[in-house]
Amino acid sequence: MDQGTLSRLSALTENGKVNRALGRGQDGVEEVTAQALAEGHSPAAVLEALTAGMAVVGDRFAAGKAFVPNMLLAARAMSAGMALLKPFFDSGEVQRKGVFIIGTVFGDLHDIGKNLVAMAAEGAGWSVVDLGVDIQPEGFTAALDANPGAVVGLSALLTTTMGNMEPVIQAIRRARPDTRVIVGGAPLTREFADKIGADGYSSNPAGAVELLAGFAAEPSGGAL
Ligand code: B1M
Prior knowledge:
This protein is of the alpha/beta class. It folds into 2 domains: 3-91, Methyltransferase, Methionine Synthase (B12-binding Domains), Chain A, domain 1; 99-217, 3-Layer(aba) Sandwich (Rossmann fold), CATH 3.40.50. The chain is built from 9 helices and 5 strands.
């Protein structure tokens, strides 16, 4: 296995190189993700390489050395790689464990972490309703009306939008008090999650799936 392929993948993500078609014939994340998988790198290792590239862009942005367009291009590149990883997260189970509604709260446009949590939940046997980004409280309650008894997941990546989770949880509690709500995203802490009344917090997709498993095991299947 060539470890250089993973380093190359991180660098391509960092530099926002999506694919050959957009890169004037130069390989991008799409081609090199396929290559890494073909070489036998595990999907988890490939995901780590993509995430590492993204972290570098974030650090450069924080240091004033990269700008919003750089972050956007890196996000597009990472999404191209994630599309190839998705089948590995799908378990192919026919029997679904329940419905998991997920979205990024209003004011926030970050979706990569949320997409990873959605993929992990799908792979663990949940039917996922992905509402997307910038979702108002009514978006979540409408999805619950269509999927009563579903568990809800909220994501936020900004210190300025994590506070928007609380009104979403309050709206959900008013509309359907028996709903389980879990939260996550880089700036969150367990203390914050407790303070806003979430039923669970995880810093990563695997932890979110564990929380879901706990809810599915309840006699009510997730509803309180
Ligand atoms: Co933004 N951005 N961004 N950005 N951006 C960050 C988050 C930032 C940390 C960069 C920095 O300064 N170092 C910073 C936030 C600072 C803060 O609030 N403390 C920041 C900023 C400031 C901004 C803008 C305000 C910039 C501006 O306009 N001046 C702006 C805000 C726009 C808005 O949302 N209203 C903005 C815009 C953008 C883009 C649109 C350009 C783009 C997003 C594109 C997209 O998502 N499609 C973008 C990007 C790409 C980033 C960085 C570089 C990467 C985010 C990412 O995808 N990480 C980010 C810096 C960084 O993270 N290092 C940054 C990879 C992803 C796998 O990790 O999302 O953390 P993450 O998800 C993790 C966990 O958090 C967790 O699991 C995931 C996998 O491990 N998780 C959950 C997430 N949700 C969960 C839910 C769960 C459980 C776990 O349960 C439900």
